[in-house]
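We now fix the convention by which a protein and its fold are recorded. Think of the row as the fold of the chain written in a discrete alphabet. Here is one such record, which you should read through line by line.
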Amino acid sequence: MSRPLGSGNTGGVEWVPPEPRLEAPGVALRPFRVSDAAAGADACRDPAILRFTFMEDDLTEAGAVDWINEATEWWSRGQPRFAIVDPDDDRLLGQVGLGVNSRHLSGDWGDLSDSDRRANDHAVRDGDRLLSSYQVTPDLKIWIVTEANREATTALLPDEY
């Protein structure tokens, strides 16, 4: 059984949005921008979308700006929120929030082989590098890597490692 890496939501690790944005075929993930507010408010007027979201009905553009500003703060709590955008024109398609940091901190290493899980369990005890892998969509996997000195944790795509 793995032990948590730290206490609280972030375990003392600073989480920042990735730069450049994360991309996979047909989709890109990036931090929200205030310029996304109008599209977000428009989406919240669509009854089909509201069936699948926690967003409030009839969200105004000002309310969407408030939500975007709050979503930006969630990064520092280890709960990243991404705008899902078209990779070609950067048009807002949706949003997704990831709880990977809390999973990583609690020792839920995600989609790893048994040998990688054992290596992580030893790394928690011995102070070595940690790796978690989370399948976000069928075409998008994110790795979370915490360095041995515990001073940095990075979210990246597997081909960026």
User: Anything to note?
Assistant: Strands lie at 22-24, 27-30, 81-85, 92-97, 130-137, 140-146, 153-156. The chain has a mean pLDDT of 83. The longest strand covers residues 130-137. The CA atoms of residues 4 and 106 lie 4 Å apart.
